[in-house]
Amino acid sequence: MSGCEGRDAKKLVRSPSGLRMVPEHRSARSPFGLDEPPWVPDKECPRCMQCDTKFDFITRKHHCRRCGKCFCDKCCSKKVPLPRMCFVDPVRQCAECALISQKETEFYDKQLKVLMNGATFFVTLGTSDKSELMVCRLSNNQRYLVLDGDSHYEIEIMQISTVQILTEGFTPGGGNTRAIGMVLQFKVPGSEELTQMKFTACEDFSCNKKLSASWLAAMHKVSKGGKTSRVL
């Protein structure tokens, strides 16, 4: 497989919510993205949907760019970055949505960058008893895990069904654990059967074990993100 990043061109578009930098091709959209919500029509919200203040010439209504509901300025005053919708600048959000978006900022600024920088693992495909040293990273368009060694693989994020992080150092009474590997199960295009791939952190000096552990930790946060990622 190859060419996962061949359609990464982006374009600047203007929506009622603000300027967005989006992929030219919808098929190149990040699986971590969100669609803009429909705005609650003005005629359906005579009062703030948070504090119930009545809108008039003095108390104006504002729409939260994340949920689309109507609020007064007091309840929808924060402008917060919203990378999941590809907004160029911070946008107006209600207090609840602003809190969610602020928490996601750490995910986007740190975890996805770690995954895109990549790390080195011994990779075993299926039931094979042979492993191959490969660099694994998240593609720039965030749609694929790209593995490069003597072989080359591209695993579509949306086709990954399970992620199991392998650890060592756990004790019954608690204690620190260290991520040492990962097992993925995913579907190959054109097949309904699951393929398994095992990643094992290197133990020799040619590999950065700390980098591999950080990459696995980031992958764990992605897979357990639920409300954050909505994928995996």
From TrEMBL:
The keyword Metal-binding applies. CDD domains: FYVE_ZF21. One of its GO terms (molecular function) is zinc ion binding. Residues 42-97 form the FYVE-type domain. Keywords: Metal-binding, Zinc, Zinc-finger. InterPro entries: FYVE-type_Zinc_Finger, ZFYVE21_C, ZFYVE21_C_sf, Znf_FYVE, Znf_FYVE-rel, Znf_FYVE_PHD, Znf_RING/FYVE/PHD. It holds the Pfam family ZFYVE21_C. This is ZFY21 protein. It comes from Thinocorus orbignyianus.
